[in-house]
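In keeping with the milestone schedule agreed at the kick-off meeting, the structural modelling team has produced records for the first pair of proteins. Each record is given below as a sequence line and a structure-token line. The laboratory manager (R.T.) confirmed that both were archived under the project's standard naming scheme.
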Amino acid sequence: MLEFVNSAGSGRTAAFFDLDKTIIAKSSTLAFSRPFYEGGLISRRSVLRSGYAQFVYLVGGADHDQMERMRQYLSALCAGWDVQTVRDIVADTLHNIVDPLVFDEAVQLIEEHHTAGRDVVIVSSSGAEVVEPIGEMLGADRVVATRMVIADGRYTGEIDYYAYADNKAEAIRELAASEGYDLSRCYAYSDSSTDQPMLEAVGHPYAVNPDKALRRVATERGWPVLVFSKPVALRKRMPIEANKKTIGAVALGAGAAAAGAVFLVARRRDRTV
């Protein structure tokens, strides 16, 4: 799909992908609201509220403050949830929920980067319990995702590591240092202006289905703009060769302790409802 740049350099390379609205067509975490309801984790009212949040997220009509309030509500909502129950629900419903939402263009791009010898890393503000299995399904090599504190097998509702905005860029730099990536030869893809620091951290940034603010930045800086519009069920497509090793879940930040928050969304948008 893309013609990659073969620039000189001795370091390894990687392609860093945001997840929501870049690889899949909606919020990955909010997509699981019905399975969590059916599993007894949330109420019908919470399902309806999650549906509203998904709508706001998709149309890009929420400003930073609105989405921050929603993030606080959703992270508090998962306080007390049994971690293994969450993992089981995600595992049992993953393909049914995510399969129809994956962009075919993103899957092809992931394959092309792997063919070119690059690692594929998903960097998402969503919770690790959702992002990690999606990353494994897509054949990603590593995942950076938001994590929450766990005590006695349950979420406390406190955030331990928040993969958002500048934190994403810092995570990429730390990963580059540990894995030997030459960031000047690496690629990054995102739809959101909040990921501008992540895009600026690499030599080849791409705006995918960008919001208004990111489109403006991409135009000013000459960044390529990609349009992904063809959701596909992976099982009906040429299968991706899954990694033989377990996907590398990268826990970054001081004392990053535990598994993931499931209902985390916080994406800055440039318009209010």
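The second protein of the pair:
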Amino acid sequence: MPARLINGNELSKQIRSDIAQRAAELTRQGRRPGLAVILVGDDPASHVYVRNKVKACHDAGFHSVLEKYEATMTEAELLARIDLLNHDPAIHGILVQMPLPRHIDPHKVIEAISTRKDVDGYSVLSAGELMAGLKGFRPCTPYGCMKLIESTGYDLRGKHAVVIGRSNTVGKPMALLLLQANATVTICHSGTPDLAYHTHQADVVVAAVGRRNTLTGDMVKPGAVVIDVGINRDEAGKLCGDVDFASVSEVAGWITPVPGGVGPMTITMLLANTLESAEG
């Protein structure tokens, strides 16, 4: 039986509707959620991402500030701007769009953002809070992946989850969130000699390496939940993920599409984090 589709677009709409209602109530109380987005340079993909984030804020009733700067902006100027936003009571979340121009250290920029406004969940302190199981902002993409899994009603307790990828933004926090849900977690990566050995045993697979066809149908346990985080292009220029959807969907129990799976949830959880910051 073909896998059931986990529709990120539909789940995102449901969550955003709740977010908009809560934001409206906060606004009535005089505390409208506010997100500041900073874009430095002219990376085309970044412009698209930023535009989508600003639109999502508007649709949810948030106050949003978009600041665009030339690629010649200095690191000191950017840090100074972040410091001002840290002290702006109308701003509850600060997002600096990556990548930055080469002369700006992204680590310094991330660490300059107040932890109370780190709605991307990328700072060292946010990562430490996640590691320790403390309350804090979760990186938006892994957070969205967990919501997608939860939407299926699948109980992660005692299940074996394999995360393919070890990035600080997706792979590592994804593994920690799955661990917090009482799954047994294996992290695979480019140094893993036999990926299929691990994925064959997995009840849940999260593919997040940015490489087409990393996971194929012959590598998947029948009935597994498969979450595809990858964003790639095939030979025809069509958007695709890390998972060979055609073959894996014939074996898996649940699967996310690309597009329409994880992507919509990433921005949705950014809104959720910003709302939580405003409510707190």
